[in-house]
Specification:
The chain has about 160 residues and is mostly helical. The chain has one domain. The protein is built from six helices and two strands; from the N terminus they run ααααββαα. Strands 1-2 form a two-stranded antiparallel sheet. A hairpin with a 4-residue loop joins strand 1 (about 105-110) and strand 2 (about 115). Helix 2 runs antiparallel to helix 6.
Length: about 160
């Protein structure tokens, strides 16, 4: 008695599976990912920390005083954590956390997702400059990336199983 493992047959199976995956619509797991990323970004703003959990550098004391004067003079909506380091008017915060402000970048296709803001100053905070410390706010937290990977994996497995019936 013997057992023969035909790798050509196995390669053929995986090849046909790869062909099917080329046309997969990932809209459902991408929508889930979008919600999780928006939640993470909101949490980064409110906790005033990077996606990795590192606290943001405090405001320059001179600017912190100026910011308080500005906040007292301008009418503004209330946001939780409104007096946070990166929130002045709330526009950048809102544009990245799923609130329709007209400044958000929110593009999704069957295979891709783009989330961001058109506020030009956001990049200076995300990456820092010589004068502005890096305060990364847009990114995926560790546990969230695992959850997103699970959603995509489950989606693919479901499609494979449905295709084999």
């Amino acid at each position: 008695m013997d057992l023969t493992l035909d790798l050509d047959e196995l390669a053929g199976y995986f090849g046909s599976m790869a062909d099917r995956l080329r046309d997969v619509d990932f809209t459902k797991p991408l929508q889930t990912a979008k919600g999780l990323i928006n939640d993470d970004t909101r949490q980064n703003f409110l906790a005033q920390q990077t996606p990795d959990g590192e606290p943001w550098k405090e405001l320059n004391p001179v600017y912190a005083l100026e910011k308080q004067r500005i906040i007292r003079r301008i009418p503004r909506p209330h946001y939780p954590g409104f007096d946070g380091i990166l929130i002045l008017s709330g526009t950048m915060f809102s544009s990245i956390t799923g609130v329709d402000t007209g400044f958000e970048i929110d593009e999704m296709t069957r295979k891709s997702l783009e989330i961001g803001t058109t506020k030009v100053y956001a990049i200076y905070h995300q990456y820092g400059t010589r004068k502005i410390p890096k305060r990364e706010f847009l990114g995926i937290r560790g546990g969230t990336s695992d959850r997103i990977a699970d959603f995509f994996g489950d989606h693919v497995v479901r499609l494979i199983l449905e295709g084999d019936q």
